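Practice problem: predict the structure.
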Amino acid sequence: MKNFSIVTARLAGALLVAGAAALPAQAADCQFRPNAPDQHVVVRGDTLWDISGRFLEHPWCWPQVWGMNRDEIRNPHWIYPGQIVYFDRQNRRLSLTRPGSGSPGVGGVIKMSPQLRTEGLGKDAIRSIPTGAIEPFLTQPLIVEAGELAGAPRIAAAAERRVFLGKDDKVYVRGDIQDGTSFQVFRPGFAIKDPDTDQLLAYEAHYLGTVKLARKATADNEAHTFIVASSKQEMGVGDLLMPAPPTPLQNYVPHPPETKVTGRIASIYNGVSYAGQNQVVTVNRGSVDGLDIGSVLQLYHRGKTVSDPTGKRSMLGMRAEQIKLPDEQYGTLFIFRVFKHVSYGLVMQVTEPVEVGDVATSPE
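Answer:
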């Protein structure tokens, strides 16, 4: 499959593995490119996915060729512009240490020991993947599980009987807000159904804005008082509230799911028919199925069922035998936000457009 590098993001913050003495064995499927360079000088705007794509047939394999174990993947180190990434051909590894030198490469770069570097985080470092395309999806829009709608707090009234509400307006909310003080306001929208069963999985809600608690109700028949903190679209009576999500994880380390996962593309954001590189899709698998942030899935077009004109039945004038063509791999999907039954994925590499119903499965 062709390698399509993604170099659109100029972002700060990222991951570093500065070499290690005892490294786990490289996975068999993490093959280096025949024309892989001996080294690469990291520049601002690089991502670890980009850098690894220069060396590897599958860029998502980079945690393994860096020798990262599972704990390091969950708590990654950092890498910075100006450092040199070396291809240690003898050990089939990527490293910040020149092969055979026993010390980090120089070339005008300050020497570093293989320790966690803490200064300059979020300023000088680079990210593992380009996050510009997914930032709006980290906190919005909302994926709302079907069962969550019934118990969600709702706007029951507005000050001065206003029909549409905007920033700094006062709203009155009924429902159990528990100990929450900051909420997102949404309106149920596009229904996401399982391509296999046609079962309703969730709603991709219309994000309207945020509200802040001003006064909590003191009696069961009393409404909570909220102030509209931000408004993307006008709110109204009947719109629903969900707790604002925690600060999203900013460093993403690609890895295969811990268990075998096979799912289908359930929808393409904005309801369009096709998706390309750097676009967002939903998968009909979530945390209960073994997906977590950073999971990498391979994309396949489902093989069609066709008639075999060369079969014995056709030769005898009977109805031609039906055969299924194999599924064809054409791309890679990076999971960046996980809900219970569905997940958001960023299309990283494709040679053909993504379609609803396509297969998304753990790397072979």
